[in-house]
Structure formats: C-alpha cells, structure tokens
Amino acid sequence: xxxxxxxxxxxxxxxxxxxxxxxxxxxxxxxxxxxxxxxxxxxxxxxxxxxxxxxxxxxxxxxxxxxxxxxxxxxxxxxxxxxxxxxxxxxxxxxxxxxxxxxxxxxxxxxxxxxxxxxxxxxxxxxxxxxxxxxxxxxxxxxxxxxxxxxxxxxxxxxxxxxxxxxxxxxxxxxxxxxxxxxxxxxxxxxxxxxxxxxxxxxxxxxxxxxxx
Length: 213
Hints:
- By secondary structure, the chain is mostly beta strands.
- Helix content is 15%, strand content 46%.
- A hairpin with a 2-residue loop joins β3 and β4.
- It is globular and about 40 Å long.
C-alpha cells in the first residue's frame, strides 16, 4: 500500500464501524484536499504541465475499483533515502480501502508493523473529472497534515503512474508512485525519489498486497 500515514485508526472495529470511521476521516480531509486541487486547477489546462511534472496516463473514475476491500500488506522501506545507504526495513499488516462518492473517491487505511516500529497511514484519493487525473493525498500521524498531492492515472489499464514535486531534507525532488494490478487478488506499489529532475530514480518503498477473503 501507499506511504500514507493515518489520522484515525479503526483496527479492531466491526466492518460497519470501520467504514463509518473512514467516511468521517475522509470528511476531515476533503476540505484540505479540495483546496489543493483548486490551486492545481487554477494553474493551467492540465495537472501534469501545470505542476511541471512528467506526463502521466489519463484516469477513469473506476481506476481504483479493483482495490476496494481489505488486504494483507507486506512492505519494505528504505530507511535513509538519497543517502547512498541501502538499509531496508520490513513491515507486515493490513490495508483497507473504503469507496466514497460512487467510486470517484476512496480512503485508504494502512496499519503495518516490524522491527523498526509501526506505520499507520491514511490516503484520500479524489478523481478530477475535468482533467481525468487522480490526486493521491497523504497524511501522517507524526505531522498531522496533508502532503502535496500526487497526480496521475491508469489509462484504463493495470498500470498506474503518479508524480509530485516535493522537498526532502531541504532538497527539491520529484516523487514517482507506481501501482501495478497483478490480478484481482494481488497488487504492487512502488515509490521512488529523483534528485536530478527525473534523470535517475531511487526506489524507497515497495509494498505487495494480497486480498483478504
């Protein structure tokens, strides 16, 4: 699952309560995410060019239908990105995806743990019907704020690509996030950073999800 860090934890709740919690948390995030989307919309004719990002596939409102439900997540995280060190940490747990607005939005909850600690996360995904792109809006429990949205889509296929511009330890970077739908019960997520404008990329987050029946 994506590197999305949680604002509200619903582990251990019934499915109905978990869905209610996901909807409530989505309501908290919607205003901030809408403000970010509005600033992107005002910038120009398309997300990719307006933000100066690499081109991405167009999206459809059904791009994330495959992911609705509960998943077992195996995660590997690079501990010190862009440092030259290759020390990885492993985590295991669950991801839950709650559809909203007829599938045009969803909330992802991530709860994984390993020797390096626990990661709890949330991502609000919204579909822009005019520009045919998704925004992936992450928040984390440590910072309590939304990160800059990642933008992209799947081109109505199994391979999704998303980009954002950000800073990491004071350095301007590009962030790439790739989602591959392997089959109806398996999907893979990969995040990478580029400090040279996209000429080279360093992968720092790899997650594999298996659907829980």
